[in-house]
């Protein structure tokens, strides 16, 4: 058990009062372009309908703000530009003690440790180590075909091949008709 009084983040001292257990440590792997989930929770029995009394802070290992949940509301207004428009939370889950964050559009430089602090009537501290890899076959940020694009490519190839077959059918029919009506 540790008494944490101050945690420096972006040059600002965040005050955390209370007794914290040792942090939960998690390893997460993701692929470039996909999403990663940062689990951050406390037992539902500790929430007891007091979601607004909890504050949740997700920071990267450089102290940059990823996102915050305060008073039962997600507030990403002070987040680092690197994470802008890439973070999701799940408000329907807060009342269950689940303050999970989702980081979308993973990039290689997102690979690092992330620290989630939950403060309020109960506290928790989770450290998530994120590893980001290129997709198998060397596809990373560039050259990745999603399902919709792949479907369009298949359609165009089939359309092109069908066009060639129709052209050949018409050409052969025309040649045969010329030979038949010539005699």
CATH architecture of the largest domain: Sandwich
CATH fold description of the largest domain = Immunoglobulin-like
Helical residues, percent: 10-25%
Q: How many helices in DSSP terms? A: 3
Return Rg in Å. Answer: 27 Å
* Major sheet summary line: 6 strands, mixed
Low-confidence stretches: 1-20, 139-144
What share of the residues does DSSP label as strand, in percent?
Answer: 25-35%
Characterise the protein shown here.
The protein folds into two domains: about 1-135, Immunoglobulins (Immunoglobulin-like, Sandwich), CATH 2.60.40.10; about 145-183. Helix content is about 25%, strand content about 35%. A six-stranded mixed beta sheet has the order 5-13-12-7-8-9, with no helix packed on it. Strands 6-11-10 form a three-stranded antiparallel beta sheet, with no helix packed on it. Mean pLDDT is about 80; it is low at about 1-20 and about 140-145. The protein has about 180 residues and is of the alpha+beta class. The chain is elongated and about 100 Å long. The N and C termini lie far apart (about 105 Å). The chain contains three helices and 13 strands. The chain has helices spanning about 45, 90-95, 145-180; strands at about 1-5, 5-10, 10-15, 20, 25-30, 35-40, 55-60, 65-70, 75, 85-90, 100-105, 110-120, 125-135. One of its GO terms (cellular component) is external side of plasma membrane. This is Immunoglobulin domain-containing protein. One of its GO terms (biological process) is cell surface receptor signaling pathway. InterPro entries: Ig-like_dom_sf, Ig-like_fold, Ig_sub, Ig_V-set, T-cell_Activation_Regulation. It holds the Pfam family V-set.
